[in-house]
Design a protein that fits this description.
single chain, mainly alpha, Ribosomal Protein L9, domain 1, 3-stranded antiparallel beta sheet, two-stranded antiparallel ribbon, 7 helices, about 10% strand, DNA replication, DNA replication complex GINS protein PSF2, nucleus, GINS_Psf2, GINS_bundle-like_dom_sf
Length: about 190
């Protein structure tokens, strides 16, 4: 399971955050405009208070110019995150979270905290979820086996964090299982 050298480097959190720029999010525009054609697609029309879908990078740009309100995803609520935290602390495996939850939450909390209900409570819940998931990932990595790695529901940031360790560990496990142990009589042969 060795990765080629060019794939062994994990993306940085900033690179993962940049990748989320292509995700489609809903906004409530604060201006009027017909459809706009961009390289990435056609977006609009922008008519308040009707919601429209745009890429995250466009939502960020409009939000910074105070031209829209970003509609947070359904999972950015205290109820949803409290339930997930309870699952993380009471169950053995990782709970199902949106694949890019950490990056999306960071962008929304940095750019649009005024569009989120109870942003401080959301930050705390996300931090607690992240810490619980990291602890579970460390435990799962301790139980690595060359034939089976029982890691499910990892998110992009978590994959990035464990990727280098995981690929190195799998390379070592692969070498240990392939190389035969020296015969006892060869050990004392001078």
């Amino acid at each position: 399971m060795a990765l080629p050298p060019n794939l062994r480097q994990a993306p940085t959190p900033q690179e993962l955050e940049y990748i989320t720029g292509e995700m489609i999010v809903a906004i409530e525009p604060l201006f009027r405009m017909e459809k706009v054609r961009l390289v990435s697609g056609v977006y609009g029309p922008f008519r308040p208070p009707a919601k429209t879908k745009v890429p995250m990078w466009l939502a960020q740009s409009l939000k910074l110019k105070r031209k829209c309100r970003i509609v947070p995803p359904d999972w950015v609520t205290v109820d949803f995150l409290s339930l997930r935290l309870q699952e993380e602390t009471s169950q053995a495996g990782l709970s199902k979270m949106p694949f890019r939850y950490a990056e999306v939450a960071k962008v929304l909390l940095d750019i649009a905290p005024d569009d989120i209900m109870e942003p401080d409570r959301i930050r705390i819940l996300l931090k607690d979820i992240r810490e619980a998931r990291q602890a579970k990932c460390r435990e799962l990595l301790r139980s690595l086996d060359s034939a089976y790695a029982p890691i499910e529901n990892l998110c992009s940031m978590e994959i990035s964090e464990v990727r280098l360790f995981f690929s190195s560990a799998m390379n070592i496990i692969g070498k240990l299982t392939v190389e035969p142990a020296p015969a006892e009589e060869d050990m004392y042969d001078f």
